[in-house]
Structures are given as structure tokens and as C-alpha cells.
Amino acid sequence: MSGGNPVAGLGSTVLTLAYDGAAFHGFARQPGLVTVQGRLEEALGVACRRKIATAVAGRTDAGVHALGQVVSFEARDDDPDPHTLPRSMNALAGHDIVVTAVRRARPGFSARYDAVAREYRYLLVPGPIPPLATAGRAWWTKRTLDLAAMREGAQHLVGEHDFRSFCVSGSAEGKRTVRDIESIDIRPACELGEHVVVVRIVGRSFLHSMVRIVTGSLVQVGLGRRDPAWVEEALSACERDAAGITAPPHGLTLWNVAYPEDSWL
After folding, report:
1. Of 114, 135, 152, which marks where a domain is finished?
2. Domain housing 37
3. Structure confidence at residue 3 (pLDDT)
4. DSSP percent split of the chain into helix, strand, coil, nearest 5
5. Residues 15 and 78 in one domain
6. 152, 192, 241, 244: which sits with the fewest CB atoms below 10 Å from its CB?
């Protein structure tokens, strides 16, 4: 496929996506596997009549969902107009990926490196009654949760810390594991008529499976299996085995990604 030439004034094309992660082996391209990026770039290639390489705000794990994922790629002069591109993409990408917005950003913009905050939300269904409407979007804990204890434990994680205990061990080898969590909010809510607990985590960036391990650890506290002070001990240990379980992927959604206002053309 061939396209036109890059034009400095066009900058980057930025797509906001929602997707159901159940059928995908994560976001990132993997040979022989169905991934969000693979499906998306194939659709973009048809719509733009050229090979597209995207940058992404966050490479979600297999089974994780998104409502506000962001990807970017270099704009060219004969690409579809941003106003018409969503219609083409939503016809080409399949029913489980939806392009909700298309914008133009300044030249050199990267959906990954220019993000200033990422918000994830994890849904929990506590208690003995299993979920129905939210079953594919929430983790049923089967027992009630002590939200006050979870909030107390979560406060040990807010701020800048070494989160080596809260990421996949192999992914941390030889890499910087210090991250800054802006906030962790834990609150009851109602989703599709069902009572849930929402764990909302905001930070500039996250390690591999970090949000799921943080959530799994806080659930251990909420179930009374660990004391809130244990969260600080796990953090200080800088060993994966010191922290709690990894929460199932289907309860997690990449909710929103924020960028500086001067990013947009």
C-alpha cells in the first residue's frame, strides 16, 4: 500500500478506542494471535490505504477492557478526514473495537510518551450473590469486603514508590520500577442494577499487571486475610512473592488517558 507524504502541519492522528478485551490476547501485536493492535492496524491499513504503525497509551493484558484507550500515528496528506475516519474504522475493525473519537495532535505527538495520567477502574462484586449483568466486567469475591480496611491499605501505595513487588517478576528485570500513584479511590456503586465496588487508580504510568496486583492485594485485605499494614510491608520488600494475588483480567478497564491541552491542533 502507498500513501501521500507526511505534512508538518498535519501532525499526528489520534484515535480514542473502546474495546471488549475478552476475545483478544492483549493489546500488543503478537504473531499468530488475535490482538487489539493487530486488528486495529489492519483496519487502519485498509482505511488509509497504507501500512500503519501505532503508538499506544497502555498495552493492556489479555482479557482487559478499555473505554478510553488512545493510539496515535503519523498523519499523511491523503489520509481520510478525521471526521469520516471513525465511520470507516467502526465498519472495518469488528464489533468488539469501537473508535469513539479522532483528533489531530502536534507533530511528534506520541500516545504513549505524552500521556500525563492514566486512569484504570476495577469492578468487584462482593457478597454471596453472583453477578449476571456485570459478570464479564467484574470479579465476584463471593464474600463481603471491608472497604475501610482496603482504603487504609491503599494509602500506603499512594505517592512515589518502588513497585517491584506489584508487577510481573520477569518484566522488572533490569528496569526502573519506581512509579507514582496519584490516587486510589475505593467506593460502592451500582452498575446495570447490580451492587459493585469500584477501585479507581490514577497515575502517570504503570508496570506490567501492576493495577491487577494492587487490586488483588487490596482484596486480600478486604477479605480479612491480611492486615492493612501488610500492604506497606509488601511494598518495602521489593519482591513479587511479598504482595498478593493478581486479580483476574476481566474486571479491569482502562478508563481514561490525559494529555496536555497544548497537544491538540
Report:
1. 114
2. 8-114
3. 45
4. 30, 30, 45
5. yes
6. 241
